[in-house]
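Protein: SMI1/KNR4 family protein
Species: Stigmatella ashevillensis
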Amino acid sequence: MTVFWEPYLSLALQPVSAADLAQLEQEWGVALPGEYKDLVTACQGMAPTPDIFNVGKKSTNVFNVLLTIKRHEGYESYSIPRAYEVLRPHVPPGVFPFAKTPSGEFICFDYRDRPTDPQVVLVSVEMAVYPISNDFGSFLNGLHH
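Structure follows.
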């Protein structure tokens, strides 16, 4: 299914550069998936349609917004650095946020078992980690109405 991206934040964002992505990779000590880098370069701060994803076999959730690479005044809560600050003390090392749900949960990369091709997981408001998808491409392909 084709995913369409629409602006979510009412803010003119600076373009994501290769240096921005390299800095994030260096800070986290990981290699971000190429498909993610292409997407966030074009669509940071945007919302997808369709936006529903499966969590396990009997639950669904909503992909609300792709987090921004840098902080933006007034929109810090939509940035990866702020999301990571919130999550870091509560989740295992190797789990890194890239998107939010409407209820404040985070969609994250999970590098714990696969250092070069992370799984996608949901971190609940209780900071529990739930598997969503084997990889980022499968996650995007699984979005539905």
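Remarks: The mean pLDDT is 95.
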